[in-house]
Amino acid sequence: xxxxxxxxxxxxxxxxxxxxxxxxxxxxxxxxxxxxxxxxxxxxxxxxxxxxxxxxxxxxxxxxxxxxxxxxxxxxxxxxxxxxxxxxxxxxxxxxxxxxxxxxxxxxxxxxxxxxxxxxxxxxxxxxxxxxxxxxxxxxxxxxxxxxxxxxxxxxxxxxxxxxxxxxxxxxxxxxxxxxxxxxxxxxxxxxxxxxxxxxxxxxxxxxxxxxxxxxxxxxxxxxxxxxxxxxxxxxxxxxxxxxxxxxxxx
Amino acid sequence: xxxxxxxxxxxxxxxxxxxxxxxxxxxxxxxxxxxxxxxxxxxxxxxxxxxxxxxxxxxxxxxxxxxxxxxxxxxxxxxxxxxxxxxxxxxxxxxxxxxxxxxxxxxxxxxxxxxxxxxxxxxxxxxxxxxxxxxxxxxxxxxxxxxxxxxxxxxxxxxxxxxxxxxxxxxxxxxxxxxxxxxxxxxxxxxxxxxxxxxxxxxxxxxxxxxxxxxxxxxxxxxxxxxxxxxxxxxxxxxxxxxxxxxxxxx
Lengths: 251, 251
Known about the structure:
Two copies of one chain form a homodimer.
Chain A: E1 7-11, H1 20-28, H2 34-43, E2 48-52, H3 67-71, E3 79-81, E4 87-89, H4 91-102, H5 118-148, H6 154-184, H7 197-211, H8 221-231, H9 234-242
């Protein structure tokens, strides 16, 4: 009898040619589970990885396969099933669970005697998964709408995009990265000498904003080095190899 | 000498008449700190409340006042300054801090011997602040854009809205509330006999979706009773009296 192992249900990030509204829908529901895969590799634990592909054509094109709904009613990746069979959703909850459960040497939990404590981890985690995520999704949506609109109405959608960009998304993205540059300071990771929950969570908005060119990291030298440092970790490279694609730009 | 007390910097939710793009901007940055005020009242601790109002006119109409930037560079409410002077942002991080620090009798932490444990709290907290929040913000944005657009282009924006609603926001909102109805089950609160972090965090998307009519709670009898139960708590009522307005519908 083999010991029960946890399972990550991982959906691919798709970049195949898609029709207009499918692109929009996909971009709003793109898979964020690469960061879970990264953490699993960092922890070095035994786990099962189940890869899923989106529908390639038909009415459900780009949607997650119905099989995922059999595991959790919301049917979205990531879904993580613990070794005892409990079904977890939501990246943030999964990252926190994994660190609590498996990081017995406390490598990925900052240093509670410094400012790299739970409070800081919570602030930066929430900042990455709510505030920054919201801005980049709204910016993406508007860009996709402009690109997908028929040429005779495109100027209108362009005007809408430029209005929202000038009063909201443009400055918010800039302020967010300025804030992160200051927060990182001279540390290797947001949580100190090793990544913590905040770093795993922030990897998705970082990858997303870099791939969509929402940010030019050359303007933020500390973040630029940080991003290279994360990408250079052996666990991240293994995660990229095991996952089924990570091309986040749609359309 | 009086003992140092923590301070909540609370920005009002505005509903004054606004111009088009200001409405859009405001709706994307509405204040979410009522839930912090609620929790502070539940905890029954001594704290200072500093109320802020948005600019009423001029180029900065509807924006948060610059004073907030003196407390934290991102200048967004809620900002919570601890009794020792540490500055916290992000609702989720503030709720977690307050519960850890002040809920010494563990009233608001579920029951770790049941399924109302930290894992469940994390899942529902993240679901409220990321997944559900994203869908409702995108739906709001589209509705405001339709309402604010000049009449001769309104049909185009309506078509865009109806497309996104049919493939994404409509079904996502429905699935989200179905999921929450099941998750609540026969409990009084998501975290058991008392609210927990997840309940405090979910109060914002609940209020928002109810006020914007994104959900008809009559279709979800358990959630409907739950919502009434939360609104009926003495601490919630005190929070509403102390906060400066809570009308979330803009436009």
